[in-house]
Amino acid sequence: MDPTKKELYDAKRPSGINASDPYIQEVTDLLRSDNDPTNWVMFKVSGTTVAVHAIGSCGLSEFSSALTDDEVLYGVVRCEVDGKIRFYHIFFVGQGVSAMKKGKA
Fold first, then answer.
1. Is the pLDDT of residue 16 over 80?
2. Are 37 and 57 in contact (CB under 8 A)?
3. How many CB atoms lie within 10 A of CB 63?
4. CA distances from 71 to 4, 10, 22, 105 (A)
5. Apex CA 34: angle with CA 33 and CA 35, to 5°?
6. Closest CA to 56 of 30, 35, 33, 81
7. In whole angstroms, what is the distance from residue 63 CA to residue 40 CA?
8. What pLDDT, on a 0 to 100 scale, did the predictor assign at position 3?
9. What is the pTM of this model?
10. Residue 41 β-bridge partners
11. Under 8 Å CB-to-CB from 39, ≥6 apart: which residues?
12. Closest listed residue to residue 23, CA positions, set 55, 68, 46, 59
């Protein structure tokens, strides 16, 4: 492959998503901490900005009640499996989301 084409192919490109809100890092640190009861967090993208949609510590029932039919949401759930901490990532598209919004997601 031509070196110029390889550089273009391997170049890092920004996603255009703004996740610079310090609250996002705060919530992520709470989720990762062994000393905090927080076991799930949910994010939503508004335009090009990521924001915290909901946070909780009561498990999957509370997580599922925070889902909405008119949003595209991304969640992280912390679980203990066989004595080890695991993080599960969930991408949710509500039934009422428009086709354009689904495509952008």
1. no
2. yes
3. 21
4. 41, 33, 23, 10
5. 90
6. 30
7. 7
8. 63
9. 0.77
10. 55, 76
11. 31, 56, 57, 59, 77, 78, 79
12. 55
Q: Please tell me the predicted confidence (pLDDT) of residue 85.
A: 93
Other C-beta atoms closer than 10 Å to the C-beta of 41 total: 22
Residue-wise DSSP of the chain: --HHHHHHHH-------B---HHHHHHHHHHH-TTS---EEEEEEETTEEEEEEEESS-HHHHHHT--TT-EEEEEEEEEETTEEEEEEEEEE-TT--HHHHHH-
* Phi, then psi, of 28 in degrees rounded to 5: -65, -40
Instruction: Give the mean pLDDT of 68-94.
Output: 92
Whole-angstrom Cα distance, residue 45 to residue 66? 15
